[in-house]
Amino acid sequence: MMDKNSYRGDEDLEAPDKLVKALATLPKERVSVPRHVDEAILREAREHLRSVGQGQEAKPPAWPWAEMMRVIGDFLRPNGPRWRPVALWSAMAASFVLVAWLMYNFAHPASSHAPAQSVEDLNHDGKVDILDAFCLARQLERGGRPSRQLDLNGDGVVDQRDVAIIAAHAVSLERTGRL
Amino acid sequence: MQAPVNAAAKPDSLSDLDLVAAVNGGDVDAFEVLYYRHRDWVVNLAFRFTGDRDLALDVLQETFLYFLKKFPGFELSANLRTFLYPAVRNLSIAGRRKAARYQSSEEEIRMMEARTATGPVVAEGEPLAAALAGLSEEHREVLTLRFVDGLSLAEIAEFMEIPLGTVKSRLHHGLSTLRQDPRTKSFFEA
User: Fold this and answer.
1) Where do the H-state alpha helices sit in chain A?
2) Residue of A26, A32, A42 to mutate when probing chain B, most B C-beta within 10 A
3) Residue B24 dihedral angles phi and psi, to the nearest 5°
4) Per the CB < 8 Å rule, is A15 touching B56?
5) Is the ipTM reported for this complex over the cut 0.85?
6) CB under 8 Å to B76, separation ≥6 — which residues?
7) Residues of B in contact with A16 (CB under 8 A)
8) HEC profile of chain B
9) CB < 8 Å to A15, chain B
10) C-beta atoms of B35 and A38 within 8 A
11) Which residues of A touch B120 (CB under 8 A)?
């Protein structure tokens, strides 16, 4: 927006030398900058430009766990969607149940729950394990007549081969808890 | 075509353009040179706008932090002060408003903003200073930038983010007022 007295040419925009000198020598209140202000600014500059010089904007995580915790932290941030904490806690609860179930089955293999009437449970302790293989082996060694049901390989006789089968089953049960 | 930066040259002798290029590469020393080269100009300009020492120092810090965050990738197309001036001005205005809020009601803030910002210190018996203080902030600022800071008209337009024609008009008005003022008309006489 032009003022009322519009200039007529650039000659109207020049100031006499006397005026320019007078303006330059006008008393001016100057502000002196304290040292701590300089240091604060330059400290910020060093921090910021260090990362510029290294060609990186953000530091990488130290190791994956730090990144995981950061992600979890971001996930649980108060400004995030309301459903996030519920979903995370649900996932954590499900993980806990799974771990508990695995630990329980490891501590209590399924063999301990094998039915007592299992033919291989020779010592009737409610589970089929290596002791049953020893039991059959002892019977055979003493010349006993084990039950025909112990002909586990179906060759018509109950012998050391059937002992081996029981022993193998016992190891398999210990590993998987299942026959 | 820009001349290559002479790595052996002392930082103080390098142009703002060369120093900015160095800062873009992470050179802290180059930033330090730029800081000290323009520091006093920035803080005194801020004082001109705010009239308060502490506010001026705050504006100084905020201005250079604002400048720092432009790196890497800052492109200097003109005088560095052309870039800094609007930042100082806007930060000063914001600082003035913020300071006023702690002390004044909204009505008082409006009245304060309607008043002209500080002019040169009006010493007893200093007619030129008194005459300048009587100008509006816009006219006084253009005169000061032109004849005290030595900026060209185009630079002033860029600084103040106004058209060149407006700069010329305000400058003409300011000089015309001083020419007609009894306290300062002697400067225009041969």
Assistant:
1) 17-24, 35-53, 64-75, 83-107, 130-141, 160-176
2) A26
3) -60, -25
4) no
5) no
6) B16, B17, B20, B83
7) 187-188
8) CCCCCCCCCCHHHCCHHHHHHHHHCCCHHHHHHHHHHHHHHHHHHHHHHHCCHHHHHHHHHHHHHHHHCCCCCCCCCCCHHHHHHHHHHHHHHHHHHHHHHCCCCHHHHHHHHHCCCCCCCCCCCCHHHHHHHCCCHHHHHHHHHHHCCCCCHHHHHHHHCCCHHHHHHHHHHHHHHHHHCCCCHHHHCC
9) 146-147, 175, 187
10) yes
11) 26-28
Residues of A in contact with B128 (CB under 8 A): 19, 22-23, 26
Cα–Cα distance measured from residue A115 to residue A162, given in angstroms and rounded to the nearest whole number: 20
DSSP state of A33: P
Over the stretch A63-116, which tens digit does the pLDDT of each residue have? 555 556 666 665 555 555 555 566 677 778 778 788 787 777 766 665 444 444
With beta carbons under 8 A apart, name residues in chain B contacting A33: 39-40, 43, 57, 60
Distance separating alpha carbons of residues A62 and A84, to the nearest angstrom = 26
What sign does the dihedral B30-B36-B41-B43 (CA atoms) show? positive
User: Out of A12-21, A118-127, B43-52, B89-98, which region has the weakest mean confidence (pLDDT)?
Assistant: A118-127
Chain A residue closest to B32 (CA)? A42
CA B71/CA A70 separation, integer angstroms: 27
Q: How far does B138 lie from chain A, in Å, by closest CA?
A: 12
Report pTM: 0.53
As a whole number of angstroms, the distance between CA B49 and CA B64 comes to 17
C-alpha to C-alpha distance for A71 and A65, rounded to whole angstroms: 10
Distance between CA atoms of residues B42 and A114, nearest Å: 88
